[in-house]
Design a protein that fits this description.
Helix content is about 50%, strand content about 15%. With about 300 residues, the chain is an alpha+beta fold.
Amino acid sequence: MRLASSLVFCLCLLTSAARAATPEDDYLAARDKAISRIKGMEKAKASDEKIGAEHEKLRAGLEKRLREILGDVSLKEFLGPGKINLDSLSDQDVGYGMLDGLVYSGGGEEAPRLVVTTRLLLDKWLAARSREKRVDFKVAANLETALGQDNFFTFAIGDDSAFARNANLELTAPMGVELVRAALGGWGQDIGPNPDLTLIVTLIKGDKVFIGSERPKTAIAKIVACEAIWTQTIEKVDRLRADYEAAKPKDQKTFDADSKAQEQGDKDFHACWKERASKEPFYPALLKETQEFADRIAGR
């Protein structure tokens, strides 16, 4: 009987330990409480000044918690103690719902940026995003799948622009790194070709997740076949718009076809890039640059 009682007691201890809140759980509870606080103030129609002051105070508290969770992120390329990546605690603002973590800057607008979080915080963020009711706002719960989705970067580290991927780059995982993925793409409000491209490298090292972004130094030429796809799309859209303007009364179907043609053209343009990028003359230099960026993030 005593042995059985001891076993039950030990099992209870193990169960209690398994259910104990992690520092990440404590942070998320504090974050949700802060969001509710701001929502309550907005509902009560508090002044913008009061809401703004409370907002910054709450974000500062969350930032402090994240620093305690993440500890020292000592990468000389990225300056300062890091700032909270979550731009807003109000669901009425751009920057609400971004990935929970700290963002480090290399200094200046064009300098590299690095968002750091823990695997647990990322997994919980992905789980929440996967339950998003709006299809365009969803992100897969599985990390490998999510990293293949442009929405992941749009909502995790973007603020007011969407990410569109031009190519995936196959890297070698630096020593001590569990997973590394890289993408080349652009941030923007519009669809179609984007001349301002960014390299994004995501890697997992230990219990930390690093998402680094920088402007490529490699000269990236246009891909003629892909540009032709977009040119044909614009010509088609122009014809549809002319038909719409000529219609009396206006033909809604023609107007809708305009939008669908642009969306399909954008998909075809980026699919062309993904297929052809690795065969282009600029690719070896771009791949080398991206690998070096990944190595620097990994601390090599």
